[in-house]
Design goal:
Helix content is 41%, strand content 28%. The chain has helices at residues 12-62, 72-82, and strands at 86-87, 95-97, 103-113, 117-128, 133-146. The protein starts with 11 loop residues before the first helix and ends with a strand.
Length: 150
Amino acid sequence: MIIRKNNKGMTLVEIIIALAILGIIAVSFLGMFTSAIYTVFAMGNHSRAIAEAQMVLDRIYEDADIIQRNDLEAHILSILDDFNYSENDPDDPEFYINSQGNELRYEIVNDSLLEQGTIQIVKLTLTYQNNERTVRLSTPLPKLQLPDED
C-alpha cells in the first residue's frame, strides 16, 4: 500500500461548503438566543409588575387595621398617589396610570365566608408593556369585617 502525502491543503470549494454549514448552524443558534433574550426581558418586566402590584396591596393590607371601612377608598387613592399613579379617566374612577405607562385598576368587593361574616377584598389589575400584559392580584382585608346582613 502506497501512502501519498498531499501538502496542497483544502480547496476553495471545501472551504465554501464548510462556511455554508457553519453559517446554517450559526443562524439556528442566533434565533434561539434572540428568543431567550426576549423571554428574559419579558420575565423581568413581569416580575417588576408583580412587585409593584404587591407593594400597593401590602400597603393597603398593612394599614387596614387603622382605617375605617368607609375610608378604604380614600386610603387606596392616597396609596396610589404615593406610587405616582394619577387618575386617567374621570368617567372611570377606578382606573389609574403612572409615569411609565402602567395602568392600574382596583376593585373592592365584599365576600361572604362561611360562619365568619363578610370581608372586603381588594383586587388589583396592573397592565404593563403597552397594554399587552396583565397581572392580577388580590388581598382580603379581614380586619375590616362587615356586619352580616340579615
